[in-house]
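Trying the structure run again after the queue cleared.
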Amino acid sequence: MPELVLAVALAFVLGVGVTLLAQLVRRHARGARELGSDADRATFRTLSLASRAAVNLRGGLRGDGAHRATRALRTLLGSDAVAIADERGVISVDGRADSDGAAARLAAEVLASGQRQLLAGHDADAAGVEAVGAPVVANGRVVGAIIAFAPRLRPPLVRATSEVAAWCGAQLELGELETSRAALAEAELRALRAQISPHFIYNALSVIASYTSTDPERARDLLLDFADFIRYTLRSQGEFTTLADELTSVHSYVELERARFEDRLSVTLRIEPETLSTVIPFLSLQPLVENAIRHGLEPREAGGTVVIAARDDGTHTEITVDDDGVGMRPDALRALLTANERPDRIGMRNVDARLRSIYGDDHALVIETAEQAGTMVRMRIPKSQPFNETAPSTARAGER
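Done. Tokens:
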């Protein structure tokens, strides 16, 4: 690989995100037959190797993919051997089987100084092989070292090893962010589950009890709805689901509320069939429906109507929950989405925060409301989400 191409390609890798990198690799793969020049083929090869190493570094230096990452880095650098080490010692070596001792010694010097170190000339190992060690820095702390071996060190390999070590540090930081994001999402779901109102549970069980003597069949159906709703809400698989599964849970919740409201509550569904398979954050629709019923319609003596709609909007699925209830003032709405003193409204704030976290601020909830004019809540979910997996359906099977 030409030295200039390697340096340019590494700099490019450092400047783009992993998602863009993956897109470029796929695009180059589709057009591989057109990569006629040496520079084109070298760039594609560098991007492919870096993408492969990135995936295996996300779990940390001592993750399951450490050896696969080491192999990809050795090929990327074109060196005789590459080792990855941390403060506990050498983690993985690819290449020369006798390089562990030299790698451990050089890594210790790198970790102690925080600077690049060389084994060259009279300092080379017993076989006369030279090496360069560069620090891997993540979140401002030296967490490891990349060691590259060669019969004779050349400036391009020294510089490239430093660039690769810096890039590895960035991948570790991204891995930590992903772990933190997963932990935050789990905490947010726990908070949402904790919001299941004791008042709602008491009301639901009271309504079920009231039907046991007058309409046992209705009491049985409501009890199954209650069990389905609780089972779905407390499930432990994943932070994503499908719109179809979420609507099944919403149906169970609505049936329980309809038994309490009787003819004061009307719920209309306007769901385009092609939207049912859309992957959405778990418990993102049900809290919006609950908010519409509890805070929009319940205060009205005459009750009202909730319309749940989903339509295909090209690259997105647009989901709306619209009620003709009491509405609210715009300043009260702003306080609802930013303040923490309304534990009874945590559901909507939680959904808004999760949408922003997963898809970005441009996918936040859109809310239109005014006093005595009802409330409409809209969310737009990307239809293509290759990195978000759904859990198996928890809906009750069979006929009632």
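The domain at 195-382 is CATH 3.30.565.10 (Heat Shock Protein 90). Worth checking whether this holds up in the mutant runs.
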